[in-house]
Amino acid sequence: MTGSFRGEFSQKVDGKGRVSIPAAFRRHLEDGDPEFRARREALREDDKLKGGARFVIVYGDTRREFLECYTVDGMAALEARILAIPRGTPSRRALERVFITLSTVAEIDGDGRIVLPQKLREKLTLGEEAVFAGTADTFQIWQPEAYDRDVAEKAEEEIEGLAPGVDIAALLDRNF
Prior knowledge:
Elements: E1 8-12, E2 18-20, H1 23-31, H2 34-42, E3 54-58, E4 66-71, H3 72-83, H4 90-101, E5 103-107, E6 113-115, H5 118-124, E7 129-134, E8 138-142, H6 144-158
Antiparallel strand pairs: 1-7, 2-6, 3-4, 3-5, 4-8, 7-8
């Protein structure tokens, strides 16, 4: 899979919860969905592709004010890591709950949209607009005011400890 989820986009949400997935994100989601890739590769030149890419929306972490979205391949890799943890342990139960139980699969329609379920719109207190924020291997869906507040509050916190004038790329060399 190539590319990444990059950038921030403001998208309209209609009364039924339909919202367009940014075109740049759709390409990455298509590449990260094995069923979509197989359908695309099986097409003849004059055929139209039916059905869009699928992806996973995780909403279970109550500490977060956003929805985290994974490609199908990305979620499969995460699930494999969860399944490697011994069954019944507190860590595995917590991860299963957040990433598997409290998640849903979305499919992009022919117009490049998904329907965000009412439950997820309520979690975000989403109105007529949503912010899509790329984070390389995932993307987030935010209520605009919450996104702006988070960016403003975390900007300084995230670069704490860097001397004035030091390039932020220096964070890449930190051992966490």
